[in-house]
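Is this the right way to post structure tokens for a design question? Let me know if I should format differently. Anyway, here goes:
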């Protein structure tokens, strides 16, 4: 029995060593990272995709990071992304790109895939906001429109993110970021991520979405939700993938979990499975890799500084997806 255990362990280690090769993420087409709300490239020495792009490149990936408006409408961010992609395609000479998008970035990536399908090989959404978030609805309902608290709060938050844009205005990965980034707007973001607004967006751009809207099944089990995702894996030559999770908090020492998720929690219904910002059933798109990871919306990009989830190597999930794309000839 001991010998058998040692042999199995040795084979597993050898398999990991083989996967860990320097070319495991060397996809045919460049990988373009599409951030969600509160987006930045690198600010104060901190990467949005903390440790992720570095590991992808170490494993042979040709990776480009886009810096979309931090807090803006889906259409504005998508316009910026399309300009970024045109610049990246011109720089690299590549025929297509693979998009990996987090959170609200999923909507911009999906929009781009509809506008320029011949230049998009795949779209992968990570904890994607494909159905919006109850937080936006709850926030708008709780704060009286035109009130002093709204006016002051919006002013402070808008200008905070205008400052973040200045900090990350010089791209660290090349001079291809769109010049169309303008003034940041919390109210535009709140409207853009509203459940009803995203539902309309999905009617206009349904590519890759499951045939059934799981927002009608909030009380369903995780298995029932996940089973609805196996549809629309390829549309107009674009391959769609996704992964997601079911935890709202994973580490009380993480300031995002302690402060931000606790605030968001005040506006969320009690009867849904969510990831700390977005309902889990909104994660599904195209081919679901795994929908029930035990980490949250912010762990998905390895924040805060990798502190969020102590027991999972988040960057490796991205390398595995790059390897999956590579094996598909993408």
């Amino acid at each position: 029995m001991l010998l058998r255990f040692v042999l199995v362990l040795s084979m597993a280690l050898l398999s990991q060593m083989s996967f860990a090769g320097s070319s495991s993420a060397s996809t045919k087409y460049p990988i373009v990272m599409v951030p969600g709300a509160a987006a930045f490239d690198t600010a104060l020495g901190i990467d949005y995709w903390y440790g992720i792009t570095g590991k992808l490149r170490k494993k042979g990936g040709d990776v480009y990071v886009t810096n979309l408006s931090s807090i803006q409408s889906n259409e504005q961010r998508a316009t910026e992304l399309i300009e970024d992609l045109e610049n990246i395609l011109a720089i690299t000479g590549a025929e297509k790109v693979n998009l990996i998008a987090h959170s609200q970035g999923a909507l911009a990536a999906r929009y781009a895939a509809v506008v320029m399908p011949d230049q998009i090989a795949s779209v992968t959404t990570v904890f994607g906001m494909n159905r919006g978030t109850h937080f936006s609805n709850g926030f708008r309902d709780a704060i009286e429109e035109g009130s002093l608290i709204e006016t002051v709060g919006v002013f402070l938050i808008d200008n905070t993110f205008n400052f973040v844009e200045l900090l990350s205005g010089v791209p660290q990965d090349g001079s291809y970021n769109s010049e169309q980034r303008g003034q940041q707007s919390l109210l535009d973001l709140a409207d853009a991520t509203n459940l009803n607004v995203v539902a309309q967006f999905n009617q206009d751009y349904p590519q890759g979405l499951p045939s059934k809207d799981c927002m009608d099944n909030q009380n369903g089990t995780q298995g029932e939700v996940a089973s609805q995702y196996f549809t629309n894996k390829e549309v107009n030559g674009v391959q769609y993938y996704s992964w997601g999770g079911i935890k709202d908090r994973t580490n009380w020492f993480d300031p995002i979990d302690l402060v931000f998720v606790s605030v968001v929690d005040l506006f969320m219904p009690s009867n849904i499975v969510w990831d700390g910002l977005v309902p889990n059933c909104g994660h599904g798109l195209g081919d679901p890799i795994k929908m029930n990871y035990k980490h949250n919306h912010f762990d998905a990009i390895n924040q805060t500084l990798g502190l969020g989830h102590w027991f999972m190597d988040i960057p490796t999930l991205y390398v595995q997806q790059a390897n999956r794309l590579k094996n598909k000839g993408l």
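Format looks fine. Someone answered above. Worth noting: The longest strand covers residues 238-245. The first helix runs from residue 2 to 19.
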